[in-house]
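Hi R.,

Here's the chain you asked about this morning:
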Amino acid sequence: MHSFIALAALSLGAGVLGQQVGTLTTETHPAMSISRCTKTGGCTTEDHTVTLDANWRWLHSTADSTNCYTGQTWDATLCPDPATCAQNCALDGADYAGTYGITSTGEALTMTLKTGSNVGSRVYLLGPKQENYVMFNLKNKEFTFDVDVSNLPCGLNGAVYFVEMDRDGGKSEFADNKAGAPYGTGYCDSQCPKDIKFINGKANIDGWTPSTGNTNTGTGDTGSCCNEMDIWEANKISAAVTPHVCNKAGQTACTTDTACGAAGVCDRAGCDFNSYRMGNESFYGAGKTVNTNTKFTIVTQFITKDGTDTGDLSEIRRIYVQDGVVIQNSKSDIADVSGNSITDDFCAAQKTAFGDDNTFAARGGLAAMGDAFERGMVLVMSIWDDYAAEMRWLDAPYPADAATTKPGVVRGTCAADSGVPATVESQNGAASVTYSNIKVGPIGSTYS
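And here is the predicted structure, written out as tokens:
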């Protein structure tokens, strides 16, 4: 599962986001194809592209190349207030390979942790006209892709997930957003991140406070919340699949600590299935049943209660395929928690066993996740390190003050002091993840 501000803690490069469109750097979206499959007709390739999240992009004056934001500071002249800032500042194109370490072969996308001064990145899948995000409804379907995490050590996360962003990145709804989906605007997730520089077309400068551990980031008074389905959060050591639900539909801004926090709009903790955390220490990792030294396939199935596309979501099932062998997910070895998939019953039992509040059920559980898919969700791919919790919630003992003998505390073999971003970036800056061969279709249609 996420740390409490997991994706909000993503490290930014030299540039950040804006709402007007700049013309100083040419925007060429990297190609990324996917396949739509049927049970009887096989799979058909669709040609798409990806676009870089606006939070990473260069933000400068609409009149020239003067930065609107540098380091952790907004330019007071260009950005005296949220609305004026959005009018004065332009979001520019990206050099994907040179600045951000993002390269594409058409069906495979490689993301590198550190390129020059930039750290991490986040991209979204665009439709064929490159005007809107591709929207997914995975109820009664499966989502499949290949991944290579062999170059992702402790403290890093290669994530593939869905969030309930606006199809056009908020362009039609918010008058000050002229850039929209082609420039990666409109991000939201279940952590209600407050480091997003522009939310709902306005600069998030009110209450802006520089981060203490990251010289490129800060937080404003406003967060950006929405439902989130974490298909894959993983490195070479550990992996988790986690639905997070919210009590509001679509992207919504939160403006108080309560609304943005653990008791607010969204379920930050989610309901996760991490094989190591669930008691099976030999299933996932280097040389294990799912061998992370080499590429493998991840299949995630979204089962509905009545077996139809409109029924309530009732189960999220995980399958792996490696070297031609189909590998069913590991079963829970935690006392009083049974199964190898995510159901509402599994989540309730897990929360009880681990001594956690069932915030997932309180916000609607799996049915609410299914409702979000019916409204449409955007595909996200990223690589990041964690300034908030050093990624220990994924691959090490967490929380730090909890006894490691307590069920659910140890999530992988990484050390209790691992994952410090400064160390990760200096020692493993060349770390990378590759996503490829994305397929979506009815249950049983995308793998064999």
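One quick note: The mean pLDDT is 94.

Cheers,
M.
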